[in-house]
Amino acid sequence: MANFMQDSVVKYACSCGILNPISKLFFCRHCPKLRCGFCVCHEVDSNFCSNCLENIPSSEARNKKNCCANCFNCPCCHHTLSARATTVVVQKKPEEGAKDGDGAAGADAKPDPSKVITKKMYYLSCLACRWTSRDVGIPDQSVATGSWPDNECAYQTRFNALAEYYQAVVQQDKQERQEYLRRKTPKTHKFPSLTDRTGLTVSIIRRQMGWSDKNTQKAKPVNIAPAQNTEDVGQLPESIFTQKINLRNITTVKQRHNQPCEQPFTINKLYPQRRGLWIKRSLRCRECEHNVIKPEYHPTSVKYRIQLFASYHVPDVLLVKCDQPLKAGEPNAVILKLSNPTLHDMEINIVELPTEEDELKLIEEFKRACTLKDTSLTAATAMDSLKSLTGSPSLTGTASLTNTSLVRQTSILEEPRVVKLKVNSKLQPPEASFILNLRDDSREFDDEPQTTTKSEPEFIVSRKSNKVYLSLKFIPDADLKTGDDVYVGFNMLYTYVNTVTNTPEKKEPTTHVLNCRIYVQVGSIEA
Amino acid sequence: MPPAESNDVKIMNKSIVCEDSTLRGDITISQGCVIHPSASILAEAGPIILGENCIVEEYATIAYRLTEEQKRQKEEGNLEPCPPLVVGSNNVFEVGCIVEAQKIGDKNVFECKCYVGPEVVVTNGCVVGAAVSLKCKQVLPESTVIYGRDCQQREAIDKYAYQTLQIDFLRKVLPNYHHLRKPNQDPKRTRSVV
Ligand SMILES: [Zn+2]
Ligand SMILES: [Zn+2]
Ligand SMILES: [Zn+2]
Ligand SMILES: [Zn+2]
């Protein structure tokens, strides 16, 4: 648990070569490999407001500029504002009071002139810094939500004009590029025209393919007044040199950035800001496109539908202690605690890290495998899409494969790299493998102590349910100086039982031998 | 109970002082005050006079301590009596705050777990935010609000909201669940006696 909040001394190398604590890693069961934040696709599942927990569809969220309609942030300290109610005495005009009394009571001939009517009025208040909407003169509202005025900034029209202009520019750019592509690709008359077979008109096909209709007008950006630069920025007022500045009336940089369209200079122009929406995101393995994380849809739920965190699948390594004070060139040992989070026994073998050449070779091999897979994939999909489009399976058009617009885009893989951290000690790996028992939550309630049936290898210090304490021998490099951090690295081979299988024919769980590279910062050289 | 060497607690009527509170030294609690259980008021150096309608919540501490210099003087036996620490009216001392300020005006709020050191002068209408710690010698100008981790300051523009509702509620509820110290002073009667 300790490594959730702070930087861990035990780091795992992701399959891409980036080091991470286990709490930040995912485990794709289909690959099966470790994945870090760079090796997964981040997808927005849903937008919601973190204050009122309302789920907002993505189109509506875009419409509302990704802000909640009902919640506001304090412009002063960025805390959430809360609506507070006050009762205000409404002074009734005499004739109005009489009318009211007649209507309500009827028989009650004499309405009490001293009767006062109270009304609830709301204002926004910050519980952290005690800023209120009254501070900037926003009138109190009779309903708590929905009626708060939006502060229109002075540049709103200019901003709208610019946005419109650039949208038109983008549109024009797109059209021109399509036109150019259309002209560049040679017309092939080898195949019968699509319209002959299906009776579709050209414009329908164009629309289906995502192209614009030919006869639509070209979007022409409207002319806007370009921004003018000016030399004259005005002089500072004389008072600034002579009078003391009251810093309390001047906004901080953070407050100005929080209100980007005005960036007010004084605090009396701070207005409540609509609260930005949060997202729930799902993560997808970039290699096999399976989900590794999928949250539950509802904003109030903190659970997951799919949660393949590495700490549920990969043995957790914790540094317990170093045997002796660290000295350069002197043999030492480190006690590590390994625990098995899965429901299957694991066989663990600790070996030395691959050398840099080996690592490079592995990366090369991996890349080759990827490109092979990619080309076969693109060829297949291209063929498929061609077949479905023309309806004739006899096509053997290798030439048409160059038409890339038909091919589905494959996700970009994270470039694998060599692990940056350099280990500066020599590991003496244990000579035998050992078993890490499965996790059994009921075992903890057993009274009788576990009986050790077979003799343990000598590097195992102790063993308790699914945990093993082992001592790992190493020698820090001789050229280390006092105060240098000592890193020990090892390659941990472990057996992993995969209960989900990719092929439907094979229902038996498969056992893989997986490896992960682990780097432990054991401490610094003592004086 | 601590050694009652000179515990002289004067409680005006209409104030609610729970018995579990720690009151040490010469303390005057004015009308309408509410002292919660486990609150402490420590008048070490001199008398403390708490103004009207103050709320001192649980684990809040108001202390008037001797400085190092004064401690030495006391040991030598030539300490001159200190002037009383006068706390103004309508102050709120929230849960767990420690206030050792040398002067406290009216309508201040000391939020939860804040600390105000002995060299601070608090004027009127100030708010010391939750967990804010003021240690250096300073005078808080009127209507100062200090908030957040970085102890940012701003000036409160909106006027102070009176705690009358809260005081009325506490006055109703606290006697149901706690033993109270009996008020031993009635300003009207003392005046008539004098
Ligand atoms: Zn990665
Ligand atoms: Zn909201
Ligand atoms: Zn605020
Ligand atoms: Zn995968």
From TrEMBL, chain A:
Name one cellular component (GO) term: myofibril
Annotated keywords? Acetylation, Coiled coil, Cytoplasm, Cytoskeleton, Isopeptide bond, Phosphoprotein, Ubl conjugation
Q: Which InterPro entries match?
A: DCTN4
The residues forming a coiled coil are none
UniProt subcellular location = Cytoplasm, Cell cortex; Cytoplasm, Cytoskeleton, Microtubule organizing center, Centrosome; Cytoplasm, Cytoskeleton, Stress fiber; Cytoplasm, Myofibril
KW Cell division (keyword) present:
no
Query: Pfam families annotated for this entry?
Result: Dynactin_p62
What is the top-level taxon of the source organism?
Eukaryota
- The reply on keyword Chaperone is no
Q: Cite the record's note on assembly.
A: Subunit of dynactin, a multiprotein complex part of a tripartite complex with dynein and a adapter, such as BICDL1, BICD2 or HOOK3. The dynactin complex is built around ACTR1A/ACTB filament and consists of an actin-related filament composed of a shoulder domain, a pointed end and a barbed end. Its length is defined by its flexible shoulder domain. The soulder is composed of 2 DCTN1 subunits, 4 DCTN2 and 2 DCTN3. The 4 DCNT2 (via N-terminus) bind the ACTR1A filament and act as molecular rulers to determine the length. The pointed end is important for binding dynein-dynactin cargo adapters.
User: What's the family?
Assistant: Belongs to the dynactin subunit 4 family.
| This protein's name | Dynactin subunit 4
Q: Which organism is it from?
A: Musca domestica (House fly)
Identify the taxonomic lineage of the organism of origin: Eukaryota, Metazoa, Ecdysozoa, Arthropoda, Hexapoda
From TrEMBL, chain B:
Please name the SUPFAM superfamilies in this protein's record: Trimeric LpxA-like enzymes
Q: Which CDD domains match?
A: LbH_Dynactin_6
Give the record's keywords alphabetically.
Answer: Cytoplasm, Cytoskeleton
Q: Which InterPro entries match?
A: DCTN6, Trimer_LpxA-like_sf
Q: Which Gene3D superfamilies match?
A: Hexapeptide repeat proteins (2.160.10.10)
Indicate yes or no for the key word Cytoplasm. yes
State where it is primarily located: cytoplasm
> Where in or outside the cell is it found?
Cytoplasm, Cytoskeleton
Record bears the keyword Cytoplasm: yes
Q: What is stated as this protein's family in its record?
A: Belongs to the dynactin subunits 5/6 family. Dynactin subunit 6 subfamily.
The role this protein plays is: Part of the dynactin complex that activates the molecular motor dynein for ultra-processive transport along microtubules.
| Protein name (Swiss-Prot/TrEMBL) | Dynactin subunit 6
The primary gene name is: LOC101898426
